[in-house]
Design a protein that fits this description.
mainly alpha, 2 helices
Length: 46
């Protein structure tokens, strides 16, 4: 499930860059890492 969610998030971020919703130099892999890390941290904190 996590793997599918991460791949969908990667696809959504990539599409946002392609459509201009996010800047061209946006690092999709870094954003993906940070979003997943924040989610895991929040889950551990509850």
């Amino acid at each position: 499930m996590w793997s599918r969610w991460r791949e969908q998030l990667r696809a959504d971020l990539t599409a946002a860059v392609a459509s201009g919703e996010l800047p061209g130099g946006f690092d999709v892999d870094e954003a993906l890492f940070e979003i997943v890390a924040a989610g895991l941290a929040l889950n551990a904190a509850t």
